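Following up on my earlier thread - several people asked me to post the actual chain instead of describing it. Fair enough. Here it is, all 249 residues.
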Amino acid sequence: MGILDNLERGLERVVNGAFAKTFRSGLQPVEITAALRRELDTKAAVVSRDRILVPNNFTVRLAPDDYDRMKAMGATLTDELIRLVTKHAATQHYQFAGGIKVALRSDPSLAVGVVQVDSENVSGSVTWVAVLEIGGKRYPISKSRTVIGRGTEADITVDDSGISRKHVEVLWDGTRAQANDLGSTNGSKLNGQRLVSAALEADSVITIGQTSIVLRLLPQASGGASTPATETVQTPRATEPGGFWGPRE
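Reply from S.P.:
Thanks for posting it. Predicted structure:
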């Protein structure tokens, strides 16, 4: 991380804070995302030549009015923040000591439009939660086989005349996912290509009829001891599982 990068981030924080206090504008989710990315970059600690450790537990402090607006978005917002933190870490080759957690907190000392992020390393194993995103709704995959179709016998029923009663299935074993077309009339596509049977990566898009199904993988911490963000912690490389899955055995 160069001197110019540090100066640029420092200037960005000052300017953002000044404008927020001057115009009293409401905070937007994209500004929280930017603040989390800055926190990762600022706290990144080079442990060895091929290991850069970053915090995995974040507390986002907001002015009460901003907090109330963000809280109204529910778990969808925090899930998306976690996904974007994971994506940024993978791009920068950062590693986590455990699963990622993002919590929103109200802070009366902050002006509207200002966001502050506190972070720490919390050691522990990473558990990946698979979610299917369909028509703006998220369906957690709670069993090894999930059938999607138009019929009531499907696990997830979709109102789309272009799909079969049992159209496609998604298999999930806790670490890997696979999609299989169930002999549907109009067929299925995976990322624009004809789907018969294939391994699924994170953010893969299955298309059936006029419906898109997106696989999301959300990392969650399974507990552990808290340590300062700059302390060296032995940890596996934090790579999103979708990046290295292969066909099922």
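DSSP finds four helices and 17 strands in the chain. That should answer part of your original question.
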